[in-house]
Amino acid sequence: MFETAAATDRPDYSLLTQQVSSILTGETALMTNAAQFSALVYHSLSDLNWAGFYLCTPAAKAGGEFSHDLLLGPFQGKVACVRIPFGRGVCGTTASQRSTILVPDVHAFPGHIACDSASNSEIVIPLIKDGKLYGVFDIDSPKLNRFTAEDQQGLEAMVAAFMQATDFSQISGA
Ligand code: SME
């Protein structure tokens, strides 16, 4: 069985990226791979209180600016908000701008959605494959300033390995 190393604030991201590819080898199912990926991240980085996916789904309100919303997917942590419209909160803003957002202090981010009052900093990475956005991967920490530029680079590499291994044909991308 695969053993996850102890959680640390300076993880070896190149090793973790290799682990993503090896854990997901031979399996392309989105929910399976997303569940495994959330568990790997949650148990490899210290000081996290939530790590998980919001995946694109057709918008609940038709005729708006965006054709999709974000719907809660596999995650580790406490019960979270289920549906987030594009452009709302850190996750929805990441989806609408299609680039990573690193938030040192969530209380200073206009429109931040507080699913867990313990969260103080956050990083959200878009899931993009072949030019389409399929959702975001969100990580929360109770520590202010938890995520550095090095974390961003390392986590983006892990997400890229997840995207490569996973088949998104079952959901509609934006
Ligand atoms: N804080 C996020 C909402 C998702 S939860 O943190 C799990 C946001 O502002 O979009």
Description:
With 174 residues, the chain is an alpha+beta fold. The protein has a single domain, classed as Beta-Lactamase (2-Layer Sandwich), CATH 3.30.450. 30% of the residues lie in helices and 25% in strands. It contains four helices and six strands, in the order ααβββαβββα. The protein has a six-stranded antiparallel sheet, sandwiched between helices. Helix 1 runs antiparallel to helix 2 and helix 1 runs parallel beside helix 4. The protein is globular. The termini are far apart. Methionine sulfoxide binds next to helix 3 and strand 6. The site of methionine sulfoxide has 15 residues, from helix 3 and strand 6. This is GAF domain-containing protein. Pfam families: GAF.
| Residues in helix, % | 25-40%
Instruction: Return the domain count.
Output: 1
CATH class: Alpha Beta
Radius of gyration: 15 Å
Task: Write out the CATH superfamily name.
Answer: GAF domain
If you average the pLDDT, what whole number results?
Answer: 95
Tally of contiguous helical segments: 4
Provide the CATH architecture: 2-Layer Sandwich
What characteristics describe this protein?
174 residues, alpha+beta, Beta-Lactamase, 6-stranded antiparallel β-sheet, globular, binds methionine sulfoxide, FRMsr_CS, Phosphatase_reg/MetRdx, GAF domain-containing protein
In short:
The protein has helices at 13-24, 30-44, 89-97, 149-165, and strands at 50-58, 68-77, 83-85, 101-103, 121-129, 132-141. With 174 residues, it is an alpha+beta fold. The chain has a single domain, classed as Beta-Lactamase.
